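Journal club side-thread
Mid-discussion, someone asked how the predicted structure for our own chain would compare to the paper's figures. Pasting it here so we can look after the session.
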Amino acid sequence: MLPLGEELAPETIDSKGLRGKASFYGPRFQGRKTASGDIFNNRLFTAASNLFPLGTLVAVKRPDTNLCVVVKVNDRMHPRHRARIIDLSQTAARYLDMVREGVIKVQIMKVPADAIAGQTIDCTMGYEVEAACENCNSEESPLQFIER
């Protein structure tokens, strides 16, 4: 476990997207208000992340199984979870077959705005990371992606 004051960046940011660790929401969050104002529902394909603007659709890929799903970022993560890059709803976690492990390595890529949360997609799509965020809690896009 990291000391409270220590900063931790994602493991890597490269042409395959953002790589790091993912966890998932416990049942006690069901029905609570999220940072976006939505009521949290573990049955929806949603996520918390401090690295993407609220409302962003991202593809979350589990590299060891190639399972991939689109989720909508509608919440922020608690600072004590800074070793992780995303916290998924239980439905998304079940789809990625990560419930037993609890925390897994993932790759995350921003997807086009016309994607649908819950959709399964080809995670080899042509998006690459341009830069990481300066201020991850600002309204401006913390991660800039460019199409190849």
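Post-session note: Confidence is low (pLDDT under 50) at residues 1-14, 124-148.
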